[in-house]
Amino acid sequence: MNGTQFKVLGKDGKARLGRVETAHGDIDTPAFMPVGTAATVKAMRPESVAETGAQIILANTYHLMLRPGAERIEKLGGLHEFMNWQRPILTDSGGFQVMSLADLRKMSEKGVTFRSHVDGSKHELTPERSMDIQRMLDADISMAFDECTPFPATPEQAEESMQLSMRWAERSKDAFVERQGYGLFGIVQGGIYKGLREQSADALKTIGFDGYAIGGLAVGEGQEAMFDVLDYTPGFLPEGKPRYLMGVGKPDDLVGAVMRGVDMFDCVLPTRSGRTSQAFSRRGTINLRNARHSDDARPLDENCACPACTNYSRAYLHHLVKIGEILGAMLLTWHNLHYYQELMAAMRSAIAAGNLEAFAAEFADQQARGDIEQL
């Protein structure tokens, strides 16, 4: 049988415990994918990313097609070999970056022509070209080429965008080269409109994919509106396929989305926050720039086993970020990724035990209490 495989191993309410099987290994779900946009998770060695518990990372078609080029990566053995990451990789299709980063873009039924944000060179990205690039990169999971519907959008705008994405999804499926352990995910669009989300899901199910992503969220609509969409959209999707919420999110976003039936996530937040002096913890977000940490000999989180927490004090981390030392960004990034993976593992355990609701209540209570007061 071709494609990736997915097994639902347990349920607790809408939440699912599962496993995605790919050519480069298995992914336990719910899963969080660190973002390695340009074939690197910023401020982390691939070996260190694996040590956090991450089983899969995300890389980006748009950035890699521009630098160093998909053809070059293919000649060098594919992305796993190129970046020394032998576990699964998911690549997004490039559609979102074309819309948000590229200059002088022109969209048509065929695809998008644009000028690179790097050097102004002209490129064309179509569903067929996106599939070819993702194949050359050797992505275990490829994403259908789509247009990320902007927010806000009128119902008419959202429908027009969604219908284009559905036509592109069919072309993506036709162009995808099926191989054992390699999957293609379709992307549900439709903005904040329930009827459009259902139409989109029905169109994707008719085409048939190895997994289904929920796109067009975390684009400014706010958590309440996002959760409203997630209250119904996962229910439109096949029970036996993974569900991936793209570009989300904060820790409480992840908990809320898992409770609504989402299996996979990616977001730049833990790595970006690590580079801007922010640490996530069981007691909420900690800003290491705050002067109150300057004489604090305690660890960032006494219950965390990451290198930042086991080997260094808050005072030292504060010192590093205040003087702009690279090590500060490295340690905080490692901590944040470790925390995210611990959160996903805790939710997997809670689903298996049937007590996810109690876990979520305790999580919310701890987050509301805030960081430990300085001694």
CATH topology of the largest domain: TIM Barrel
Distance between the terminal alpha carbons, to the nearest Å? 59 Å
CATH architecture label of the largest domain: Alpha-Beta Barrel
- What does the radius of gyration come to? 20 Å
Determine the number of helices (DSSP H or I, runs of at least 4 residues): 15
Side-by-side strand order of the widest sheet = 4-14-13-12-11-10-6-5
Low-confidence stretches: none
Fraction in helix: 40-55%
Description:
The protein has 375 residues and is of the alpha/beta class. The protein folds into two domains: 5-266, Queuine tRNA-ribosyltransferase-like (TIM Barrel, Alpha-Beta Barrel); 274-369, no CATH class. It has helices at 46-51, 61-66, 70-75, 79-83, 95-100, 127-137, 155-175, 194-207, 223-232, 251-259, 269-275, 307-311, 314-323, 326-353, 356-369, and strands at 5-12, 15-22, 25-29, 31-33, 57-60, 89-92, 103-107, 112-115, 122-125, 141-143, 183-188, 211-214, 243-245, 264-266, 278-281, 284-287. The strands form four sheets. It has an eight-stranded parallel sheet. A three-stranded antiparallel sheet has the order 1-2-3. Strands 7-8-9 form a three-stranded antiparallel sheet. A hairpin with a 2-residue loop joins strand 15 and strand 16. Helix 11 (269-275) runs antiparallel to helix 14 (326-353). It is globular and about 60 Å long.
